[in-house]
Amino acid sequence: MSRKAAVVALTALAPISWGSTYFVTTEFLPPDRPLFTGLMRALPAGLLLLALTRKLPRGAWWWKSAVLGALNIGAFFPLLFLAAYRLPGGVAAVVGSVGPLFVVGLAALLLGERPTVRTLLTAIAAAFGVSLVVLKAGAAFDTVGVLAGLLSSLSMSAGVVLTKRWGRPEGVGALALTGWQLTAGGLVILPIAFLVEGAPPALTGVNLAGYAYLAFGNTAISYFLWFRGIERLSASSATLLGPLSPITAAIIGWAALGQALGAVQLLGMVIAFGATLAGQLAPRTAEKPVPTAGTEGKPFSSTEKNGQEVSMDLEGAAMRR
């Protein structure tokens, strides 16, 4: 297995893990507490990683970590949940799936990466495949919900591009940077969760087990693999792995919850998975060594430059089916 293939395989574990979020949320957690769930996913995971790495941001990385944490976690989760409440699950997932196109534009502005026709077509195919998997007939639209879904996609997309642009400070590992972002994002969600949802609910042993899985396996480990993948791959190679999340959610729903999978859903899976593979096989130019750490003020380089830019953590698709 090539080095890139190994990195892709490890990075793919993140969206696959996020695909289990819907099942865990519905079967193990108290109902109607999405913001508290977001808080329990982000803050304990971030604090654990801080304790393990024993590294805090220095200098400009205090505000950079806060910005990345807010975009990738703190703003993304509340907007995602608002869209989920206001829209049918399939509509919310389809709105979220336009994220790759946001990254194409942001990467052109902030990274100087010019999109190709193949990049755009791959992003559109991924969104179309996801729509076939999750969109139901007669789905209704809500202006506030659609706007929230678009803003959640934009927030995550901006976080992905800035993560690529800023890299991480010299001598700091991906685990520490993940801890900084999860902690910052959790602190953003904390007051919102208590203002909107009130005091935490009484938790059972089953609830605690569900939150433990979401915080440590589904968040701490998965986001570490995700941010590590963004460093080592082009943005498109990493973020076009996103369709694996709704695909995983649909398979779990069929196997564990008895949800039907018809011919249209299976076709959508094939198209979305094909777009994921196409994102890894896009043509490359000017291959360079892949660094294991960035330097202050310099973005991570990538082995793949032109024709490689699409994003979206489609975790939302799993949450909103």
Query: How many strand units?
Result: 0
Biggest β-sheet: count, sense, barrel?
Answer: none
Element order: H for helix, E for strand: HHHHHHHHHHHHHHH
Number of helices: 15
The class by helix and strand makeup works out as mainly alpha
Shape: globular
The average pLDDT score comes to 80
Residues in β-strands, percent = under 5%
The residue fraction in helices comes out at over 70%
- Stretches with pLDDT under 50, minimum 5 residues: 284-321
| Rg over CA atoms | 18 Å
Note the gap between the termini: 34 Å
Structural overview:
By secondary structure, this protein is an all-alpha fold. The chain is 70% helix and 0% strand. The chain is built from 15 helices and no strands. Helix 1 (3-18) crosses helix 13. Residues 284-321 have low confidence and may be disordered.
Q: What secondary-structure arrangement, pairings included, does this model have?
A:
Blueprint lengths: L2 H16 L2 H8 L5 H20 L7 H14 L1 H11 L2 H8 L2 H12 L6 H18 L8 H24 L7 H24 L7 H28 L2 H5 L4 H14 L5 H18 L34 H5 L2
Helix pairs in contact: 1-11, 1-13, 2-11, 3-10, 3-11, 4-9, 4-10, 5-9, 6-8, 6-9, 7-9, 8-14, 10-11
What are the key terms here?
single chain; mainly alpha; 15 helices; 0% strand; disordered C terminus
